[in-house]
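Appendix B. One record, verbatim.
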Amino acid sequence: MKSKILILIGILALSSCQNKTEKKNIIKTIVQDTLSKTMGGTADLSEVSDKDDKTVELIRKQLQVLLQKDLPAMTKNDRYFYYEAFDLNNDQKDEYFVGFSNSYFCGSGGCSGYILNNDGSVINRFSVTDFPISVTTSSTEKFYDLIFESGGEFHLLKMKNGKYPSNPSVQEVIKGNAPKETTKVLDIQVKKLEKYSF
C-alpha cells in the first residue's frame, strides 16, 4: 500500500512538472503569435473603437501642422504622444489633453503639451509641467479650472479670454497637495496610457 501511494505521488509530481512546461509553452506561443500579427499588421483590432481611431488621427494631423517646423529636427523616438479626452466645458464634446514625455519636449522644468478642442483646434499650448494634470470642480468662463504641477508646486490655471495660461510655473501656487475632488488626466505612469506616433 505504501509503495502504491509513493508511486501515485511520483506520477502526480511528474505530471505537475509537465503541466508547467506546457503552460509556459502555451504562453510563449500566444506572445509570439500576437507579436507576429502586430508586426505584420494582421492583429485583430476589433476592440479598438472607430471614435478612438478618429481621435488619434485628428490629433496626429494637428501635431504635424503645429510642429511642422520642428519635425526635421526630431528623431523617430521624439515623434510620439499620449492623449486623454475630457469634457472641460460640459458641452457634451470632449476636449483633448495631449502630452509628450521625451527629451525633445521635456526638460528640467517639465514637459510641453496641448489642449485641443473636439475639432482639433488649439485651446492651449503649455510648457514646464509634470503629469498628471488635475481638472477641478470649479470653473471660470464655463471651463473647468486646472491644476498643473511645475517645479514641485501645484499651480491653479483659470480660463481667461478663451485661453488657459501657457506657463503654469508662473501662476498662483496652491498650498499643499491638489484637492482630492479633482480628476487626473494624462496620468501617463499610473494609467499606462497608450503611446501614439505622429
